[in-house]
Amino acid sequence: MENKTPVLITIIVLLFIFVPLTIIGFFARGGGKPKEENPGHEFIYNGYLWFYDEDDNYINKYECINAVCNLAEGIIDDDEYGFNYYKDGTSTLIEPSHGYAFIVDGENVSLFQMQSGLNIPYKAVKTYQTKLENNSYILQNSNGLWGVISISNNISNNIPFEYNFIGLKNTLNADNTLSTKKFVVKEGEYWYIIDEKNSSLSKTFTEPIIDYTDTYILVKEDDEIKIYDYESNNYLDNYTIRDYAMLDDYIAIVTDRYIIVYQDLNSRYLDSVQLPEDSEKVTLENDGVNLNIVVDGDVIKSIALD
Question: What is the pTM of this model?
Answer without folding.
Answer: 0.83
